[in-house]
Amino acid sequence: MKLTSFRFLLILVLGTLLLLASIAIYVYEVASYNLPSLEQLENPPQNYATQIFSSDGVLIDYFYVERRVPLPLDSIPKDFINALIATEDRKFFDHWGIHLGRIFKAMVKNLFAMRFKEGGSTITMQLARNLYFSQDVSFVRKIHEALTSIQIEKQFTKEEILEMYINTVSFGRGAYGISVASKIYFDKSPLELTTSECAFLVGLLKAPEHYNAIVDYDKGIERRNLVLRLMYEQGYLNSSQYLKALNEPIRLAKVKIKDKNEFLLAPHFVEYVRRTVSADKRLSEYDIYRDGLTIYTTLNSRIQMYAKQAVEEHLSEYQKIFNASWNWKAKQSLLNKLIDESIRKHPDYVNATPDDKESVAKRLRTDQHFIDSIKNAVTTIQVGLIMIDVQTGEIVAMVGASPKFINENPFAKHSLNHATQIRRQPGSAFKPFVYTAVISDSMTPNSLVECGPYSYTLPSGEVWTPQGFGNCEPGEKVTLYEALAKSINSVAARLITQYTNPLRVIEIAHKMGIESPLQNVPALALGAGGEVSPLEMTVAFSTFAREGIRVKPKVLKYIQDNRGNVIVDYQRDEEVIDAIDPNVAKTMIKMMMGVVNFGTGYEVRNYLKNCEAAGKTGTTNDFADAWFIGFTPQLCAGVWIGFDDRRITFTGGYGYAAKAAVPIWGRLMAKIYNDPTLPYKQRNFGLADSLKISQQ
Q1: Does residue 1 carry a pLDDT above 60?
Q2: Cα(96)–Cα(104) distance, rounded to whole angstroms?
Q3: pLDDT attached to residue 214
Q4: Does 677 map to a domain?
Q5: Which helix (H) or strand (E) holds 52?
Q6: I need a labelling partner for 679 at 20 to 30 A (CA). Which of 90, 106, 223, 420 fits?
Q7: Pairing of strands 549-551, 294-297
Q8: How many other C-beta atoms are found inside a 10 Å radius of the C-beta of residue 566?
Q9: pLDDT at position 442, please?
Q10: Is residue 161 part of a domain?
């Protein structure tokens, strides 16, 4: 009997040892696989969002994989830290990465629940999971977390662990870290949060989708109250503080725009910034989506807001005028072509088998919603607007598409930027370069040039007869000043063929800021010798305003790394070119003031009454494109109006630049000069009295 008991005891001991050895071997195998390396532990992989700020300190967007902005521990509210410890890990400052008591309790609960429900994770274990492992719940992952958390505790102080955790954890709604979470949920900086708000954010960590108070307000408050009670029980709050926080309602910030369209102040400007930064070799070692840079741009948020308002105010009425004049019945053949083109691009057609393509096409041709969407897309009036500070060359505003398009398109920032990416004929807006050429070669604003009908025989033998001679009789003459103000085509044609030549005009245009290729043809005088972007035209006209000095346009001020160190200072990157003689530039300013004061740009004066301005309108053939490029003593802005599909054009006199583009420019400048908080105060060009021009 004793022998049998001894054998049983021996077998039990050996079995237990074998089981423990098996468990040890299993744990060792698990622990030795897929753990972070020493280098990874020393440099935890954290994706920090890059922030983009306007020149006046407004956050205009992020570049990110995870929207997370790092904050030092001293910028995190003490109440938040206390709430976190009270709720997630009350023994945080006493343990060495794992809490055996919590793990044992969690194991018991899991056994009774017959499933892996709780893990007894400490803050350090949660940090390990956030940094190195997936979110899948498993025993293996728990072993990895525990072992990694021990190594993290060896590598970092408790304060450093807290800082990393608070900057890493997800609060839902795309917010990682307290910096972004406080902005998204309360539109505050972290240090502005109340005790109640800190408790609410900590409460989210258990399950943001359940406790965010948007889906269920009562559930969010209930969770917050639990956090406050834990803070009170552990001595972080006295009774007075506890009751005050308990009775404070949670007022969440309004969600104005969701998901991809959250930042719509300047989507195309932000994308232009991204392209500029990505092309800078000095930043080749940085990842703008992960390294938490801070980009300070030249955009002025208030001027940008005014630019959007000016565009929206004009197009809200102007689109109606176009819609009333456009007749699809008279354009049936064009509509059929558009439908066929859209069908060939439609996913249903592209993915259909060869035998099914015809049936798909037939179905789409009778789908009224599909046809209406085509009509709407091609007849939406598009706009490109860009504004530059004359003295610095800084881009202070940019509108890359119509507000209607931006509001309806969740990926607006990645769409065509009509301020920088389109190329269109500038029409008469190109004429100032012709006039600059002849003024440079000794003509004056008072020089007389014949303005009647004109024909010119090209080298090919073809006769070029430009339209538009300002109702002049044959032999009648006008001054250059009047000809430019009234945009008389026959005068511009005579100037480029009799007083200068296309190559000379091209040379001047390129020096002043036009970078697109231009054709050596007389029609260049009327803007028909090449296609340019609104950005190019605005840069070139700002050269006039800067009295002949061309400055490369700037979109960035400086960039900091995630520790606040300046890594690139763009304010030191100065590229200045003496493009034209300053006296010629001043003369051209005076002449283009005539365009605004009594010429084709006179519509400006319906809006801007208390500031000198100069500029030039441009309308292309068949009212396809409308331009106005103009400037005040301090600001230069270019406006283009038209359609993405060149087969769609304005249908009558309302399509002239004076009606299509000038009102946007005038509205914008009036808003700026009527705002006393903006730094733009100079209202006169300050030209010498000697620059007097006789007016007929």
Answers
A1: no
A2: 16
A3: 79
A4: no
A5: strand 50-53
A6: 420
A7: unpaired
A8: 11
A9: 86
A10: yes
Reported as half-sphere exposure (CB side, CA atoms, 13 A), residue 469 has a value of 20
Q: Which residue has the tokens 């520790």?
A: 563
> Which DSSP string corresponds to 164-192?
HHHHHSEEETTEESHHHHHHHHHSS-GGG
Find the DSSP H helices in 326-395.
Answer: 332-345, 347-351, 357-365, 368-379
Number of H helices and E strands in the chain, helices first, is: 27, 19
> How far is 664 from 308, CA to CA, in rounded Å?
10
CA distance 527 to 624: 13
- Look at residues 253, 277, 298 and tell me which one is the last residue of a structural domain: 253
Q: Which amino acid is at 101?
A: G
Strands 626-631 and 635-642: antiparallel
Tokens at residue 569, please?
Answer: 């200072």
Residue 348 burial (CB < 10 Å; 0-12/13-18/19+)?
middle
The tokens of 227 are what?
């956090």
Residue 230 forms part of a structural domain: yes
For residue 671, give the amino acid letter: K
CA distances from 475 to 370, 453, 465, 469, 478 (A): 57, 9, 16, 11, 10
Residue linked to tokens 């004359």: 390
Residue 259's pLDDT is 42
> Pick from 157, 163, 42, 150: which is nearest to 97 by CA?
150
* Angle between helix 158-168 and helix 123-132 axes, rounded to 10 deg: 50
As given in the structure block, the two tokens for residue 338 are: 């558009």
Q: Which has more pLDDT, 104 or 314?
A: 314
User: Which H or E run contains 51?
Assistant: strand 50-53
Residue 85, domain CATH: 1.10.3810.10
pLDDT digits (tens, 9 = 90+) for 385-429: 999 999 999 999 999 999 888 877 767 778 899 999 999 999 999
Nearest to 560 by CA among 179, 291, 163: 291
* Burial (CB count within 10 angstroms: exposed 0-12, middle 13-18, buried 19+), residue 16: exposed
Residue type, 156: F
Assign 154 to helix, strand or coil.
helix
Enter the tokens of residue 458.
């090209």
Structural domain boundaries, residue 464 = 423-508
Residue 661 lies in a domain: no
- The H or E element spanning position 666 is helix 662-673
CATH number at residue 439: 3.40.710.10
For 215, counting Cβ atoms within 10 Å of its Cβ (0-12 exposed, 13-18 middle, 19+ buried), the class is exposed
Q: What is the pLDDT of residues 447-491, one digit of tens each?
A: 999 999 999 999 989 999 999 888 899 999 999 999 999 999 999
Q: Which of 463, 481, 508 is the last residue of a domain?
A: 508
Which pairing describes strands 50-53 and 294-297: parallel, antiparallel, or unpaired?
Answer: parallel
CA 274 to each of CA 134, 266, 388, 457: distance values in angstroms, whole numbers, following the listed order: 30, 12, 19, 49
Per the listing, tokens 């023994």 go with: 91
Q: How many separate domains does the chain show?
A: 2
Question: Cα separation of 162 and 146, whole Å?
Answer: 17
Interatomic CA distance for residues 380 and 366, integer angstroms: 22
Identify residue 335 by its one-letter amino acid code: L
Bridge partners (DSSP) listed for residue 577:
550
Residues contacting residue 449 through CB under 8 Å, at least 6 positions apart: 477, 478, 479, 480, 483, 491, 494, 495, 499
Single out the residue of 616, 621, 618 nearest to residue 545, CA to CA: 616
Task: Name the residue type at position 627.
Answer: W
pTM for this entry? 0.82
- Alpha-carbon dihedral 140, 144, 146, 152, rounded to 10 degrees: -170
Q: Is 86 helix (H, G, I), strand (E, B) or coil?
A: helix
Quote the crossing angle between the two packed helices 239-246 and 195-204, to the nearest 10°: 70
Q: CB count, 10 Å around CB of 5?
A: 9
> DSSP 3-state assignment of 622?
helix
Place of tokens 């003593």: 633
Question: First CA to last CA across the chain, in angstroms?
Answer: 134
